[in-house]
Structure formats: C-alpha cells, structure tokens
Amino acid sequence: MGRGKIEIKRIENSSNRQVTYSKRRNGIIKKAKEITVLCDAKVSLVVFASSGKMHEYCSPSTKLVDILESYHKQSGNRLWDAKHENLSNEIDGIKKENDSMQIELRHLKGEDISSLNHKELQVIEDVLEKGQANIRDKQDEIVTMLRKNVSTASRDGHGKWVSAAHNEATGLQT
Amino acid sequence: MGRGKIEIKRIENSSNRQVTYSKRRNGIIKKAKEITVLCDAKVSLVVFASSGKMHEYCSPSTKLVDILESYHKQSGNRLWDAKHENLSNEIDGIKKENDSMQIELRHLKGEDISSLNHKELQVIEDVLEKGQANIRDKQDEIVTMLRKNVSTASRDGHGKWVSAAHNEATGLQT
DNA sequence: TTGTCTATGTATAACGT
DNA sequence: TACGTTATACATAGACA
Predict the structure, then answer these.
(1) Mean pLDDT confidence for B11-25
(2) With helix as H, strand as E and coil as C, how does A115-158 read?
(3) In terms of domains, do B70 and B86 share one?
(4) Is any atom of strand C within 7 angstroms of residue A73's beta carbon?
C-alpha cells in the first residue's frame, strides 16, 4: 500500500519507523471512528509509540471508563477492581475505628450514656478519674515550675516579665 | 473502498451493518498488529458490537492492565482514578478525623500531655469534670432505680432475683 | 523534523452463490 | 444467513519540499 510492498517486521530505520508510526496511527484511529459510526460500535483504542508517547481514541459519548468497565465485566478479569476493593476495605476499617472512638469520646464526655449499665459506667468513671489524676499531676508540675521561675524571674525595661518558660507554661504566648 | 463509495454514517440495514462490522473489525485488528510489529508500538484495542459482543487486541507480551496503567500514568487523565481519588480523599478525611479523635482521647485519659500548657490542661480538666458529673448523675439515677426496684422485687422458685430492670441496670446480664 | 504528493498495495461494499 | 469474488475507494511507502 505504497510505492513498494513492505514486509511486516520492525522497521529498522528509526526515522522511517517514526513516520510510518504516525501515519498508521492516524489511519487506525480513523478506522476506529468509522466503525464506531457505521456499525454503532464502541471502541477504545490506546496506542503507545516506542518512545512512550501515547495516543488514544474512544468512541464519543462513551467514557473510556465505561468501556473498560464493560470489558471488566465481560472478561471476568479483575483489573483495577483489586485496588478498588483494597481502598474500600481500608475505608471500612477506618470508619469502624472512627465510630468506636467517637463513641468512647462521647462516653468520656458523659454523652449518650443513657443505655449504659452500672458496670459500664463504672469503667468510664475509672478512666475519667485516672485522666484527671494525670492532668492534675501535670498541672502541679507546671505550678512548681512557675514558682521556681517566678523566684528567678525579672522584668524588662517596660515592666514585662521576661521568661520564655513562664509564657510557655501559662500559654500566654506560642 | 469497495464497489461504491459510502458515507460515514450509521448503516441502517442491520445485516449489512453486521457484515461491515465484522470485516472492519478484523481490518482494524490487523492494522493494530501491523503497527505493533512495524513500529515497535504497544496497542490496546477493545471493540464492542452494538450487540454487546466484545473483541480485543493487545500487543503481545503486554497485559492489558499494564497498558491501562501506563495510559493512566501518562494521560494525567483520571479514568478509574476518579473513583480511586474519591476513595482516597475519603480515606484522608477520615484518617484526619481519626487522628484528632485519637489525640483528644489520649488527652482525656491524661496521656501525651507533656507538651500541653496550663490553659490547654485546664480545658481538658473541665471536660473531664463535666463528663464525670454526667456519669455520676446517671449512676445516681441507676441507684435510685435499683432501690425502687428492690422494694418491689421478688425471687423466683430457685431464689434468684426476678427483675429484668435489675439485671439490665447492674449489667449482670445482656 | 513535518508536511504534501503520487504510484501502488490493501481493505472492503456490493455482488453472487 | 454466511461465504467467496471483484471492482473500487482508500491508505500509505517512498520521494521530495
């Protein structure tokens, strides 16, 4: 189909190969369009040059995704579904975790506790008490630090306290 | 390219359409094979007849999945990633939520509080106190209910307490 | 490169069967 | 309906700009 017949084997001359590639690629895409119109077919065509450059054709009014989905259905092939499923599972897992944390948080705040029994309430109370103890210890530490701080603290020329530690501990800055 | 020129528009005669479809489909697949060999290209071709029947061609030594993955990478096109991205975003969102709940929970339990300042600790303490108050109210309610219950309770023939309310409240059953 | 031009090879529309 | 056949339209290899 040209000035001379050619064998169907790799074209060694790279610039010829490139030329032939782009001509034939256009040809195939044209044919794909035609069969789409003529025969009411759906076509998905993806071509990669050896250079890695890509071209595609996909019948109008049909997203490639849809075609691939049909492909997927028909072929029974998993394709991307594996990935899809992984993500879904991950979501489910995290959501579960999320829900239970949500519930635990609410309970600690004393919300949504009307259905809890004495034992369950006791567990929560214990946790709260433990938490409170820890928090208070920490507060005591801070107070101690402040006192130590105050005893060595000084004011600047404008009468402001000069102590990064003091500010940090009280949350006045940073 | 036949006995007569044809317009590129849907062939209305359905048997002609079917014939043309299968001829042209073979033609395209042949071309696809040729460009694959001649130009060292990779081709993925999926064709659906309007009947729903599918045919595919894929360059040898290349799985369709791989081609699609390359396609996906190169095209910057979302494709199935649209779905994936949605899922990923969802995951990110939930994870964020998760993390902050995680932190809040730890704080309420008095963990990981070494970097907190006085103000922040105070907030936590307030929440704990509020929660404790709620829990204690509920406990009181239960005690009241139990008392009321006990006064009207009875034992069964084997000496066991017969009171769904009592069991539920104390968590001995269910 | 990137395109345009033909001579030629191919694909195929319309027929037969 | 599903195949071969064949006249024709189309695609394209090589040449040249």
Answers:
(1) 90
(2) CCCHHHHHHHHHHHHHHHHHHHHHHHHHHHHHHHHHHHCEECCC
(3) no
(4) no
**DSSP 8-state secondary structure symbol assigned to residue B114:** T
Closest CA to B165 of B154, A120, B157: B154
A126 touches B at CB < 8 Å = no
Query: If DSSP states are collapsed to H, E and C, what string results for A17-69?
Result: HHHHHHHHHHHHHHHHHHHHHHHCCEEEEEEECCCCCEEEEECCCCCHHHHHH
Domain that holds residue B148: 118-174
Whole-angstrom Cα distance, residue A59 to residue B71? Answer: 17
Q: Are residues B55 and B110 in the same domain?
A: no
Residue A18 lies in a domain: yes
Q: What is the number of CB-based contacts under 8 A between chain A and chain B?
A: 290
Dihedral of CA B13/B18/B19/B23: which sign?
positive
Chain B, nearest residue to A25 by Cα: B35
Contact at CB, A84 and B84, closer than 8 angstroms: yes
Judged by DSSP in three states, B171 sits in: coil
Alpha carbon distance A131, B109 (integer Å): 4
Q: Report the distance separating Cα B71 and Cα B65, nearest Å.
A: 10
Taking the CA of residue B21 and the nearest CA in chain A, the distance in Å comes to: 6
Do the domain assignments include residue A2? Answer: no
Phi/psi for B32 (5° steps) reads: -65, -45
Q: What's the CA gap between A117 and B74, in Å, rounded?
A: 59
State the smallest CA–CA distance between residue B93 and chain A in angstroms: 10
> How many Cβ atoms are within 10 Å of A46's Cβ, its own excluded?
23
Tokens of B109: 């339990």
Instruction: Please check whether residues A64 and A33 belong to one and the same domain.
Output: yes
A100-156 pLDDT, tens digit per residue, is 999 999 999 999 998 898 999 999 999 999 999 999 998 998 888 878 776 665 555
- Local confidence band at A160 (pLDDT 50, 70, 90 cut-offs): very low
Contact B47 A38 (CB under 8 A): no
pTM of the model: 0.51
Question: Sign (positive/negative) of CA torsion B98, B100, B104, B109?
Answer: positive
Is B3 domain-assigned?
no
